[in-house]
Structures are given as C-alpha cells and as structure tokens.
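queue> pop job 88
queue> type: inverse folding (structure -> sequence)
queue> payload:
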C-alpha cells in the first residue's frame, strides 16, 4: 500500500524558467510529514521543463494533449495520494502552504475541495503592476460568487475520488474549467468547498502584451462556454456596467491620467491603465466572438444550479485550526474571507 497521502500536481508547458522558484517553495513544505509527492505534468514543452523537474526530485509524466485541463486530468489519474493538490507552474508557495490546505479538509467528509489564498508576486514590470492593481487571479471573487462559489486551480485541492466521480476537468472548456468543476461537485455530489487563507501562493502575472491578450481572449471563450453549460442570467455578461457607462468611466480615467502626466505626478501605470483597460476588454470581447463563431456547443449541465445544494466556507489558520463560516444554500460572505496578516514573503525567483 502506498504511503502517499497527498499528490501535488503541477501542469507545465515551457515552464523551465518558472519551475526553480516553485520547486524551491515546494521543498520548504513538510512533504515527508504530510506524506506528499510532487508530480509535474509536461504538457508538450519544447524547453527543459521535464529535466528541471526531475533534477529536483519530482515525478514527471507527459501529456501530449494540449491544454491545462488535459494536463491536470492526467496528473489526477497518475496521483497516488487520496488528496490531489493543484499548483500552477507560475506560482510559488509560501511556508506552511501545504499543511494549511490539507488541514482544512481533514475530518470533513462534507467538503470535496478547497482553495488557498493567491497573492501577486512582487511585480517587476508595468503589466505585473497593472494586474496586481486590478486584483486579477485571486480566490475572493470566486468564493463570493452569488451563482455559487468556486476556486481557482492555481492553488486548490480536491479529493481524488471526487475527481474520479466527476470525470475530472472538462477539456472542451478553453477557460472556466475550474468554475465548472466546483459547480458540478456541489450540484451533482452535494459537497462543499473550503477556503484556507493560510495556504498562500504568490502568482506571477503576465509580463508581455501578447501574454495578456491571450489570457483575456481565453477568458472570453470561457465566459461564452460557461453560459452554454449553465444557461442562466448573469454568467455570460458578468460586468455590472453597461458599455456606455464603462466607456464613460474609462474616458474619465484617461482624462485623470493625462492631468497627472501634465502635472508630472503619478507614475507610468497611472497613464497606461486606461489604455490597458481598453486592451483587455477588447481581447475578452474578441474571445467571446470567436467562441460564439467557432466553439462546439456544450450541453447544459443542469437547468439551474443556484443555489448549490451545499456551500461551506472553512477558514483555516496556519496552525491547522478550522472554523465553519458559511452555511448550506448560500455563498460565503466576503467578510468571511478576510485573511490573517501576511507571513514573510517567499524568496523571489532567480533571475
């Protein structure tokens, strides 16, 4: 019988530059005490991703089918632990991350999965500062979603039997597969989600306009596909503001940026932010248009999944303590998601 209790799955494609920092962060966890193994899924890399992972002692498998869903599903199938932890290659876990994430699910058979806290890594470029200012890639919005809570796969854990019963992530989804899995688990299995704010990872945001464009275009695809899969009001058009109000707000922001520039106050981000807002919105709209035109229609999962049958928010500290803050039949209140003070940041990735 395997003595592995936890399998950390890292999907990676051309991630040789990111992996050293991630591997160093994973090595600082109590892997032996938690019975954890590290599994890197090489998703068709053309660089030294597999060699870098093996040199650090990780188990490496290959998944030729492109896409994060296919890579995560391959990792879940190869996992030896009863708990499968997903960690993105561009993330660095802080000390105590794994213990906090595992502890929040211990002794809670009513919970099928959990998400940890995601913060921005110290930014070094204007685009990273922009994403940090926007609050991109955090768990807060998903856990407080009135349509039902969900967790980002950049930092989360699911019981292996839950993944098996659900058939894993839906590979047809270009984006939003994490939302879909969380909702299917709650609707089909009646299991809740937990939140462990003590399980912190630092996420590296996109550093190029091309990467930012592809990211937001993919979000547009996912928005349309989720609307097909969950046909209810509010999924396809999540923006609260109308296009006219949004444009007016951007115009005001641009005018303010120009005033700051004329007065030589503020910084480059203040001037660039209105243009970047237009850029990412346009990319997302292009993704929606492409999805409507080219995506294969997805069959609806259910007529309605609001509210999910069971929603539980659990707040766990680094010491492993757990307190129920949510209740059945409603989303976790944002006030329940307040994290403890930040621990010391992880060392920055090597240059």
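queue> result:
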């Amino acid at each position: 019988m395997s003595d592995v209790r936890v399998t950390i799955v890292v999907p990676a494609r051309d991630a040789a530059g990111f992996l050293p920092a991630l591997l160093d962060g994973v090595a600082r966890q109590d892997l032996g005490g938690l019975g954890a193994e590290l599994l890197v899924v090489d998703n068709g890399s053309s660089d030294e991703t597999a060699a870098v992972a093996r040199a650090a002692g990780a188990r490496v498998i290959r998944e030729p089918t492109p896409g994060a869903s296919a890579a995560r599903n391959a990792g879940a199938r190869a996992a030896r632990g009863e708990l499968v932890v997903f960690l993105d290659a561009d993330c660095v876990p802080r000390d105590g991350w794994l213990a906090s994430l595992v502890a929040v699910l211990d002794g809670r058979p009513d919970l099928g999965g959990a998400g940890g806290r995601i913060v921005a890594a110290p930014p070094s470029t204007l685009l990273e500062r922009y994403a940090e200012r926007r609050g991109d890639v955090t768990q807060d919005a998903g856990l407080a979603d009135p349509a039902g809570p969900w967790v980002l796969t950049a930092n989360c854990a699911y019981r292996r039997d839950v993944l098996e019963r659900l058939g894993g992530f839906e590979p047809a989804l270009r984006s939003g597969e994490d939302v879909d899995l969380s909702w299917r688990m709650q609707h089909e299995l009646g299991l809740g989600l937990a939140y462990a704010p003590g399980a912190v990872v630092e996420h590296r945001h996109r550093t190029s306009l091309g990467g930012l464009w592809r990211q937001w275009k993919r979000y547009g695809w996912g928005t349309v596909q989720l609307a097909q899969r969950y046909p209810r009001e509010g999924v396809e058009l999540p923006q609260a503001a109308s296009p006219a109000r949004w444009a007016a707000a951007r115009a005001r922001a641009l005018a303010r940026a120009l005033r700051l520039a004329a007065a030589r106050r503020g910084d480059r981000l203040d001037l660039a932010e209105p243009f970047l807002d237009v850029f990412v919105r346009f990319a997302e709209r292009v993704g929606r248009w492409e999805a409507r035109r080219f995506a294969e229609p997805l069959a609806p999962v259910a007529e309605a999944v609001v509210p999910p049958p069971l929603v539980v928010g659990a707040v766990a500290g680094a010491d492993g303590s757990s307190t129920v803050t949510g209740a059945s039949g409603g989303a976790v209140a944002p006030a329940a998601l307040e994290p403890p003070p930040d621990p010391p940041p992880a060392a920055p990735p090597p240059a």
